[in-house]
Specification:
The complex is a heterodimer of chains A (about 350) and B (about 500).
Chain A lengths: L1 H17 L3 E4 L14 E4 L6 E5 L4 E5 L4 H10 L2 E2 L13 H7 L6 H4 L2 H4 E7 L5 E5 L11 H5 L8 E8 L1 E2 L3 E8 L2 H12 L5 E7 L2 E8 L1 H11 L2 E2 L4 H8 L12 E5 L12 E5 L4 E5 L4 H13 L3 E6 L13 H14 L12
Parallel strand pairs in A: 1-2
Antiparallel strand pairs in A: 3-4, 4-8, 5-9, 6-7, 6-8, 10-12, 10-13, 11-12, 11-15, 14-16, 14-17, 15-16
Chain B lengths: L12 H12 L7 E2 L2 H4 L16 E3 L4 H14 L3 E4 L16 E4 L6 E5 L4 E4 L5 H8 L4 E2 L12 H7 L6 H4 L2 H4 E7 L5 E5 L10 H5 L8 E8 L1 E2 L3 E9 L2 H13 L6 E6 H11 L9 E9 L1 H17 L4 E4 L3 H12 L1 H8 L2 E4 L9 H15 L2 E7 L4 E8 L6 H18 L18 H4 L2 H14 L14 H7 L18
Parallel strand pairs in B: 2-4, 3-4
Antiparallel strand pairs in B: 1-2, 5-6, 6-10, 7-11, 8-9, 8-10, 12-14, 12-15, 13-14, 13-17, 16-18, 17-18
Chain lengths: ~350, ~500
């Protein structure tokens, strides 16, 4: 394994020397996400394997190229899971790619985001040095929390070699309820329920139907089911998988897919467009063109609602994939990038 | 630590006049303290062994005033030390003889509680507990509950990424803060995070939380509020052996349970707090475990039942379940009051804060017991058992020659031990000035350089809370990456940034 790191380091040194950027890639399952793909391919998949897994410590450490599916299988054997339910978007997805993309699944609003579960990371920085941040323990405030900064950094700060994540037990009970509600009604109801001690673990509103997942102690789930009513959806796991992996019919077709991240209490946005709402109202998917005019309208609407919009999939990336940053924040980003990757060789243009 | 060592460097009166005059030009008189009589209360935080009179103290009322103070400090090259309630235990708010303190005492308003959105927008000087009190009428509360929550402020919690006894299930500050608004030393107002669940770009909010006041001055925080569970009940279990107690914790987790709280106390701690709180602790037990379940009545009954069974099988020889809220609070009272109790039985105490992988608990406690003999001091252990965060309390008397030095050496040895078994030198109290040398044990020069790169990205002038948290390579080199053995560290002689 050390040999592989040495090879990576040589690639980094050569890239810096020759001013030829690298395009870091695991399984390539999220190649379509983010900005431009530039640079020579650096495939991380050889650097794979679970380094340490202690179910009773609730911590798993794995090398970047480890397939996400392999990690989930090992966790499932011990009745545990990655509670942020990372989308795979393809069988080849790796843990390194999941961390770099920073995407979380249906459980996000109740269990937390991917970054909330990152405990430590080892990276190869732009100088080819191996740096270790955080650790394999739950609580750690020694030094700045660089490991969480790496979550969602799209490989722009360094080559993630190894990551430690907090894992959680799977719930003993799980069920899904369905309610007929219009968008405004669903948003109001979801926010009301989220303010009550209910074992919510996922929500999806689409086309007049609100699906609500409950997970927890069997008694809690049963209690909540009685309180909330609704119609029981038998064998609900495939439905939530289809959401996480965006295989649900809503995500089909060629039209661009926009992701709006807004306060959950924001009222209906762009009600004309096809929409699917997750995370208790905080994540809204829109099918709309990815052209400059639409982009400007959607960005303005997201901003007015107190959030931001991402051209998640498809469309014309020249309109900008991510919402532009305020100048003061952009400057901090540039300096961080220069600190970790002074020669600007890691995934240039993938984020900004 | 409560012992007082008069270590302060002298404040240059001419410089003080100059800086105070510049501040008076932009601030109302009531916002500035420069007479030593007035600045004396700011000479230390919870790490009271180290005292230093600040040059000037400012108490801004508004964000605009914070920006004005920062402009003066930037122009005159004056270091800035932010301060909340001053309850921190690592010296993060310790003043500088040539520095200006920005106290958030007047930035203490709860701006909004939004029950429907389950958020509260507050100024940094609002006390942790005050947020939960304001949210209580809506059945909501702010989850992180450091033991000092009655006094500590949300601004300080953000700076230290504060935890508490319920963070295994409910998370740390970083998991419960949605947005931070802060002033940079460059004079700009930045918004990190937001009221949505994420923000574009790098996750600067994550790196800002726990940055010990070194990246910006917080002026507003949006926190997440969560529904208060209908019911909470706690199990108190006794074990004859600390290793059995540690294994019992692992068994609870292995059974797929995440308790709302999971705490352990050793015999020394139980005997220390019992006369003080009369909680009814088993004083013969080697370890006492507190396991809390919360949720609906049925859910709590189910979880308490399962935990009781697991604890019994793990060798608990006495198990008591709280029967009402008063009893639950009484069981917790000893744990929450361990520090004041230590102050009651010992003239001084030194609270440590390492985290270890829990499986090494028995070994670490045995080695701490050996160290008690080596350093000739007693140590009581309280432990956030669920997440591996230990708080050894070293008891000493600073009036006895050499005891403070031995206490510090003992503490540094415990931290080195935490790192040795794969843990960290601080779980929730921060590095501050206290553990700055132990950082050299945990991190190599390349990581320290990366930390400085983060620091420079936010604070290119190195004026915000300098000489804290991150040691320079020089400093580590001079210490030979070794812990300090004996002697109070002078903290201003070496350049650290």
């Amino acid at each position: 394994m050390q040999q592989i790191v040495d090879t990576f380091r040589e690639r980094v040194h050569a890239a810096a020397r020759e001013n030829k950027p690298l395009r870091i890639r695991g399984g390539g399952s999220k190649d379509w996400y983010g900005g431009l793909l530039e640079g020579e391919l650096l495939d991380t998949r050889a650097y794979a394997g679970i380094v340490d897994y202690e179910p009773t410590e609730l911590v798993l450490t794995a090398r970047c190229g480890t397939p996400l599916a392999a990690i989930e299988a090992v966790l499932a054997e011990r009745g545990q899971m990655l509670a942020f339910e990372p989308p795979h978007f393809g069988a080849a997805a790796t843990i390194g790619g999941a961390i770099a993309s920073g995407l979380s699944g249906p459980r996000r609003a109740s269990s937390g985001a991917l970054r909330d579960f990152v405990l430590g990371a080892t990276i190869l920085d732009g100088k080819g040095d191996v740096l270790r941040f955080g650790g394999r323990v739950m609580k750690n405030v020694a030094g700045y929390d660089v490991s969480r900064l790496l979550a969602g950094s799209l490989g722009t700060l360094g080559l993630l070699l190894e990551v430690s994540v907090k894992v959680l037990p799977r719930a003993a009970g799980e069920t899904t309820l369905r309610f007929a509600l219009d968008q405004a009604g669903a948003l109001r109801t979801l926010n009301e329920w989220a303010g009550r001690p209910l074992p919510l673990s996922g929500s999806c509103w689409h086309d007049g139907v609100l699906s609500l997942r409950l997970s927890g102690a069997r008694a809690a789930v049963e209690d909540a089911r009685r309180t909330l009513g609704g119609e029981l959806l038998a064998d609900c796991a495939p439905f939530w998988d289809s959401l996480r992996e965006q295989r649900h019919a809503f995500f089909g077709g060629d039209e661009a897919l926009w992701r709006l991240s807004v306060p959950s209490t924001a009222g209906p946005i762009a009600p004309g467009a096809g929409q699917l709402i997750e995370w208790g109202g905080a994540q809204r998917w829109l099918r709309a063109p990815g052209d400059p005019d639409t982009a400007a309208r959607i960005r303005a609407a997201a901003l007015a609602a107190g959030g931001h919009a991402t051209l998640f999939r498809g469309g014309d990336k020249s309109v900008g994939v991510f919402q532009p940053l305020a100048p003061a924040l952009a400057r901090i980003h540039e300096r961080l990038k220069a600190g970790f990757d002074p020669a600007n060789i890691f995934n240039p243009g993938r984020m900004f | 630590m409560t012992a007082s060592i008069p270590l302060g460097l002298p404040v240059d009166p001419g410089r003080r006049r100059q800086v105070a005059a510049a501040l008076r030009a932009v601030l109302p008189e009531r916002c500035i303290l420069s007479d030593p009589e007035d600045t004396r209360p700011y000479e230390c935080d919870g790490l009271a062994a180290y005292r230093q009179l600040p040059m000037v103290v400012t108490l801004p009322d508004t964000e605009r005033q914070v920006l004005a103070i920062l402009q003066v400090c930037r122009e005159l090259g004056v270091p800035v030390v932010p301060r909340g309630a001053g309850t921190g235990l690592s010296g993060g708010a310790q003043p500088l003889a040539d520095g200006v303190v920005i106290s958030t005492a007047r930035l203490n308003r709860i701006l909004r509680v939004e029950p429907h959105a389950r958020t509260a927008v507050v100024q940094p000087g609002v006390r942790n507990l005050a947020i939960s009190e304001a949210a209580a009428p809506f059945g909501l509360y702010y989850a992180p509950d450091p033991s000092s929550q009655i006094a500590c402020t949300i601004g300080g919690n953000v700076a230290e990424n504060a935890g508490g006894v319920h963070c295994l299930k409910y998370g740390l500050t970083v998991h419960n803060v949605l947005r931070v608004r802060a002033c940079t030393i460059e004079g700009e107002v930045i918004e990190l995070g937001g009221e949505a669940l994420d923000a574009p770009g790098l996750d600067l909010l994550a790196v800002f939380i726990g940055s010990e006041g070194m990246l910006g001055i917080v002026t507003e925080v949006t926190v997440k509020l969560v529904p208060r569970p209908a019911l909470a009940q706690v199990i108190m279990a006794s074990f004859d052996d600390v290793a059995l107690g540690g294994n019992a914790v692992a068994s609870v987790i292995a059974a797929g349970i995440i308790p709302a709280g999971l705490e352990m106390m050793d015999r020394t701690s139980a005997r220390m707090v019992e006369p003080f709180v009369k909680a009814g602790y088993d004083l013969d037990a080697a370890a006492i475990l507190l396991c809390e379940a919360d949720g609906t009545a049925l859910e709590v009954a189910e979880e308490i039942g399962r935990m009781t069974e697991v604890l019994r099988q793990a060798g608990a020889n006495a198990i008591t379940v709280s029967q009402d809220e008063a009893e639950r609070l009484r069981f917790w009272s000893g744990r929450k009051n361990a520090f004041p109790a230590a102050g009651r039985i010992s003239p001084d105490y030194y609270c440590m804060d390492g985290t270890i992988p829990r499986k090494h608990l028995a070994q670490v406690l045995a080695r701490i017991a050996d160290m008690e003999a080596t350093y000739g001091l007693r140590c009581a252990n309280v432990f956030h058992a669920g997440d591996g965060n230990m708080h050894p309390l070293i008891l000493f008397d600073a009036n006895r020659p050499g005891e403070l030095e031995r206490a510090e050496a003992f503490g540094a040895a415990i931290l080195a031990l935490c790192v040795e078994v794969g843990g960290t030198i601080t779980g929730e109290h921060g590095v501050g000035v206290e553990k700055i040398d132990s950082m050299c044990v945990q991190f190599g020069s390349r990581e320290l350089e990366a930390f400085f790169a983060v620091k420079r990205a936010f604070d290119p002038f190195a004026l915000l809370n300098p000489n804290k948290a991150i040691p320079t390579l020089n400093r580590c080199a001079e210490l030979g990456r070794m812990r300090v053995s004996g002697g109070v560290l002078p903290f201003a002689q070496l350049p650290r940034f």
